[in-house]
Amino acid sequence: MxxxxxxxxxxCAHLTDPLGVAPDRVSLSWLxxxxxxxxxxxxxxxxxxxEDGTAAWDSGRVRSSDQAGIGxxxxxxxxxxRYTWRVRVWDEHENPSAWSEPARFEIELDPSGGWRASWxxxxxxxxxxxxxxxxGPSDPLRHALGxxxxxxxxxxxxxxxxxxxxxxxxxGLYEARLNGHxxxxxxxxxxxxxxxxxxxxxxxxxxxxxxxxxxxxxxLLADGWxxxxxxxxxxxxxxxxxxxxxxxxxxxxxxADGTTQxxxxxxxxxxxxxxxxxxxxxxxxxxxxxxxxxGWDQPGFSAAGWRPVRVRDRDGRPLVADPGxxxxxxxxxxxxxxxxxxxxxxxxxxxxxLTGWLRVSTPGPAASVRIRHAEVLAADGSLYTDNLRTAxxxxxxxxxxxxxxxxxxxxxxxxxxxxITGYPGQPGPGDIxxxxxxxxxxxxxxxxxSAPWLGQLFRNIDWGQRGNFISVPTDCPxxxxxxxxxxxxxxxxxxACYNRDVAAFFxxxxxxxxxxxxxxxxxxxxAPRLNVPWAGAPxxxxxxxxxxxxxxxxxGDTAVxxxxxxxxxxxxxxxxxxxxxxxxxxxxxxxxNDWLAxxxxxxxxxxxxxxxxxxxxxxxxxxxxxxxxxDQAAGYRALRAKIGAAFAGAFLAADGQLTSGTQTAYVLGLxxxxxxxxxxxxxxxxxxxxxxxxxxxxxxxxxxxxxxLPVLCGTGHTDVAYRLLxxxxxxxxxxxxxHGATTIWERWDGWTEQHGFQSAWMNSFNxxxxxxxxxxxxxxxxxxxxxxxxxxFGRLLVRPHPGGSLRAARGSYRSVRGxxxxxxxxxxxxxxxxxxxxxxxxxxxxxxxxDPEAVRDGTGGRPAGIAEYPGRPGVxxxxxxxxxxxxxxxxxxxxxxxxxxxxxx
Length: 905
Ligand code: BGC
Hints:
- This protein is α+β, with helices and mostly antiparallel strands.
- The protein is 22% helix and 29% strand.
- The strands form eleven sheets. Strands 19, 20, 24, 25, 26, 27, 30, 31, 32 and 33 form a ten-stranded mixed β-sheet that branches. Strands 13-12-15-10-18-21 form a six-stranded antiparallel β-sheet. The chain has a six-stranded antiparallel β-sheet with strand order 34-40-41-42-47-44.
- A hairpin with a 7-residue loop joins strand 45 (865-868) and strand 46 (876-882).
- The longest helix has 23 residues, at 605-627.
- Bound molecules: beta-D-glucopyranose.
């Protein structure tokens, strides 16, 4: 049964119906619904209309199978303009679909001319205040934290309202309010950029909140990344970008008579300090609920005693529509237990290490409640907070008599446990709830298998991503750091793309990366850059090339390559300038090398740096080709050849040994194709030797870990890959899971039975880098992958790699072409494999078998060919070519004995 091929799920700039898109980011995509086999789009037609219905762009019928990354080519898009669009497609039989349901997008305001508003705030006012915990005469918090201003303005609308948009941002964080309601549901808005270079704003559709008659527009303001504590420079006491938060807002109301009314931030606003005594991302929030000015954001409120605001004109910094997804509260978690210690303190365990905050309701008596947050417990059952360094993660509230509810807005805590002191009585169900906060990025991946612990590992990887993707990809959400480290993002980017649709999120962050690039061409170690001048570190700065290439590979996106091509070129020039002999030995910045590799496994920094440079050059050639710059592609191929020759000359012996015998050295040499074909097997053998010598343990840090299992499978050592995966003694992924991890730890030995906690100075239990093994689960265990050079999942290379003690695995990835689902079962004799290929995609399927000629598809069809499956004696692959639809395969699969698979010692 075949249903018509129908476009649905329309998106612009990787978002659904965005209300603010820069004109040069308008890029359209759609999914295709349609059952049956071999479905394909042969043409499309896009129609974009202005608000008055006139055509802005009619693409006409375009012969193309592309359904993502369609750049707008119509009349110039108007600043602030509103557009609707539809698409129709022609299928494999040239049958046209109906037009899709309409989608819409609105164009970003002119970055300076589109704004009539001025910055307003109360300035750096500090009031007498008692910091949370650790207070002492020299406590930096005493002078650094202050109350959060409430700002308001009354206005009258004298006609019925046709439409209304609120454009708003802050230097700091804001929550905008209109007539007693929150505008939108974003939290921690406007997010974090280098505010000295660009300031993101949000647009809210607020037609239903504005009414004819009296109205109030209001906002709460807090320090956030702009003026609060951030990073690990405690002495600086926050204020990285400025001393106090400010608000910028303009409400534009379309009136019945066709005119517009503007309400903007200016000298007509009033402000006051009230219930929020302080609010800081790292330190926490303190509320005096008795001081809440009820009704302050509604008409009829008496603002007597409120102060006039300070007004500051806008300067030249561009205001840009935030290209990323908003941060939101995405889930609530009830505690799995609440226990009480001898002193009456409650310890709530949420069963999951997460990022967010608590909502706490108290039943009646006046109370003064303190909430501390921690990821783990100490041996005596109290919170372990040593690893937070100077971050206090402490919220406090004073509740007057009567039922009360406290919930912070402008802070963020990384925790599984909370200690609650001063709670009056016993909390009932729903009184203590964890609110999960992160960039609201839709999940695109799933994985489960016959090994429950592996499902937990998968969930830990995803929770690590959720807890750290907060406006920028941060290293950790709990201690005084929470920075956008490029190395961490570089190693995790592909896993992140499989787990969740991070296209818009990374697009936004890559602008931060470009903003942070130094005039020398060096990419900084962190972006946004804050006040640390570090740059150029191998595997960190290389993110400036690897991450755009990853987005291209996963989303078929070439716009991102063109947008950042000049920055990438400057980076390549920066490296080459100082390393004319094609070994990257100079200007390595902080050279974190294979960061946090366990034990004494020290890879040569020059080897690692040169390998990454070679990788950059190879990717730059692919990038230049995809972006349409063939001359540069040729140049980068030539550069890659020179680096490859220099690498071999300096680091590679005739027997395939590398001068550093570490696992990471071999992994990088093999992954980055720096070992010539004739030595690959030998080099892979040395890698396996190194693993055996480590007692079948891995010894890779951040730079090597993501490629370890893919390299083992790619060189015929799938058994060794599974042996590392299933290893249950430290260092291993399983050790973390078996010892209660619900996220990925920063260090392999974050906690061990022998030594307890690692150094408190650097020991986060929520760092995603070591979770970069997630990519292997999708690409190798499930086999959901593309062939070399593939981009955008139009053409798949599906090669499941069963192994270890797994008897079954299944999972999926929702690609830009649609959902790809894979599943297999292996009973020791027969291997059964199912795969769903979305419309407009095709796949080469390779099914491992001990008798590949005997493998059949669901209709009894025979393989189109037989291929080698290195490393498994007696196993080859049955090859099938398929189009879209559901497919199944079955055939005999018997493993050789493990002794044959593991090389003799
Ligand atoms: C961060 C890392 C980061 C590293 C650089 C640490 O403090 O937490 O994840 O990549 O520094 O060495």
